[in-house]
Amino acid sequence: MAHRKTNAPRRGSLGFRPRKRASRLVPRVKSWPEVNLDSPKLLGFLAYKAGMTHVFMIDDRPNTPTSGREIFVPVTVLEAPPVIPIAVRAYRLIPGYGYQTLMDIWIEPPEEIEIWRKVSTYRPTENIDEKIKKLQEMQNKVARVSVIIATQPKLAGGISKKKPDLLEVAVGGGSIEDRIDYAIKVLGKKVTIRDVFTEGQFVDVIGVTKGKGFQGVVKRFGVKELPRWHKHRKGSRRVGSRSPTIGAVSEVPQAGQMGFHRRTEYNKRILRIGDNGAEITPAGGFPHYGVVRSTWVMLAGTIMGPPKRPIVLRWPIRPPRWQPQGPPVITYVSLESKIGG
User: Fold this and answer.
1) What is the rounded CA–CA span in Å between residue 148 and residue 244?
2) What is the DSSP code string of 11-61?
């Protein structure tokens, strides 16, 4: 009699439970890194995924088999129009509790930010000058400074909406006084991705994955299908036993929502930042997106989500040991049509 396997490795990490749909399309950043910068700057930016292509570049990583040689690298292109900060938020740190909002200062946004499309009850802060002066006097109580940025999707070539997306971004670098002054100075002014990141550096990518709906255990967890040459009164694409369901949390794979989950990918490298969309748009445009018309950023590798998905770029919270000294040398960028045929 053949030996029957009675155990199997667990499927799916409990760290990702519950596997349900993301609560919001623009993900909230839950933690920010502590950076050592001479002058303050924003620690994050919001861009929109355009599509993928590939490049040839000189491998500048040390101690690799291909170091100094030309290599093939798949890349993802994001379109990143300038953002406009419309609010300053200061936090104080309460021991045993965490960060608590100390003060908010909201301005009247410029006309190009059609904030009424996003918040119909938007009201700017009254007596802004007095509020700013009070915040500067309370800087000894401030533990964290952040700004709320509004995007301009109507400047992107592949985004048809005009409603801005809002995101809270922390300010890092310098002293608390410098951060407060910087946040006040950029209110209502355009901030580009070049003001936040540089070519060649690593970033963390936060976004919502592509949704796949309600799926079974075979597709969702990779469970092996039962042999079809035996009788299966209750089907073959299912688990054999669901284990005791009373008094314990079941770890057995079950059917449910797959995709549209909030995820974070660490240490994606920025290869190039450009302002001319014709330099990166392939023939016929990116599938399901179109032509890049604003500032774009090229990341090495793949990232989550379909085209047009808002993607948050953050300064790396656990950067690798090797830090590049600058951008790599790119010898070729593929602009061939991605449609096929």
Assistant:
1) 48
2) -S-GGG-S----S-SSPPP--------SS-EESEEEEEEEEEEEEEEE---
Contact 136, 180 (CB under 8 A): yes
152 phi-psi bin (left φ>0, alpha ψ -120 to 50, beta other): beta
Strand partners, 98: 94
Note the pLDDT of residue 227: 79
Q: What region does 321 belong to: left with phi over 0, alpha with psi -120 to 50, or beta?
A: alpha
Rounded distance between C-alpha atoms, residue 125 and residue 237, angstroms: 58
- Residue 29 Cα to chain centre, angstroms: 9
In this prediction, residue 81 has a pLDDT band, given cuts at 50, 70 and 90, of very high
The widest CA-to-CA distance across the chain, in whole angstroms, is 85
Residues 118 and 194: their CA atoms lie apart, in Å, by 26
CA distance 189 to 122: 19
pLDDT for 266-319, tens place per residue? 999 999 999 999 999 999 999 999 999 999 999 999 999 999 999 999 999 999
Distance CA 1, CA 292 (A): 64
What does the pLDDT look like over 100-139, one tens digit per residue? 999 999 999 999 999 999 999 999 999 999 999 999 999 9
Nearest Cα neighbor of 313 from 49, 51, 45, 81 is 45
Contacts 24+ apart (CB under 8 A), 162-165: 162/114, 162/117, 163/114, 163/117, 163/118, 164/113, 164/114, 164/115, 164/117, 164/118, 165/26, 165/46, 165/118, 165/310
